[in-house]
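tool_call predict_complex ligand=fe (ii) ion
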Amino acid sequence: MPHLHVASSARLPVASRLRWPHIRSERGATCQGARGLATVAAPAQATHSPPPLDSKVPPRARGARELWLHDKAYEHGFYQSIAKIMQWRDRYVEDRTIFVRHEEMVDLMRGLGAREEDFGRLQVVSDNLQTDPTLPFRKSRTGRFCMDYDRQSLRRLEFQSFSLSAAEDFKRHDSDTVRVFDEIQEDLHSNTVLQGLMIFKAMVMHGVPTMRRPNFDYGANKWVCTMFNLRTLTRPDILGEPALEGVHTDGVDHTMTTYPGSSNMTPNSAVTLLHERDETTGTPFHETSPNKIYGRAQHTKFLDTLLVADHEYKHSLSPVYAVDEAQEATRDMLIFFTRKPVTEGHIMAGSDSLKSHEESPLDIPLFTLPNGECAD
Ligand SMILES: [Fe+2]
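tool_result ok
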């Protein structure tokens, strides 16, 4: 079985992969089918004093709770993080999935400028979850963001309801229904580690062509990122299932899952299997075909992160089991679903607004790659 990989030491100096001063998306990069494809790297061009990032986010006084890449653009650790993220992007282009472990993810977030106190805040933020619209063993909140490459910004979007359909390889009792989740609160919205995770994801996935889904606007220079903060609970009277639906996809282009923590959870809990696309949707985790398993991953340490090209694999997860079966076990997750905006005919058409969130605005710069968007 192929394994999910961890990046090796630096292979390319950062200056060979980046182009200053105008780092922005360019159309026309090489696109090839699904797996095993490559994108076009920019020519080497080193500078000693790089100017600010080329974001169109208006200069303004920013709050302490915003991760502002401009502030780090002259620091050594920033360039090291960018170089490592580029290596992960290479791996993602090759394998269509990566798993980044705790220690490196912490370093990457620090390098991008995340505040030290936000690491601790992220580990306890799931304590404030209250309800879930359809699952009795889960608590959840959601927030919507736009990775907007017309502005090179990450922007929080207004609230919308949520649906996943059986047509998108998601078969559960609540498939095709409209679900209304609680919204994330200031404690998560303002966490610079959360913001850094989305900047990381945008850097790795942007310009990586994947197998296309119907009814997505692949001509748009924007991505919609629906983020979920989830807590799965197992108690003596109920078994927590991170994927009750069995083998499925998330109906998006790129899914990223990051682990804040757990309590009273056994080591065999919440194992993620990646399956070949011809595995039958809905198959329970323990009944999947061994010869259709592509890889296995398990989040066990703070900030362990899995990224998958969602339409190119299916996935399933084992339940959450309790060490002390008389007590509650919990498993917290941050899930980032990212896709192009939908078009008419998609179940989310009419619930895919690109308007900014009025009560809790966020508008921070993204880091844009020179080989940017892929057009065909
Ligand atoms: Fe999923």
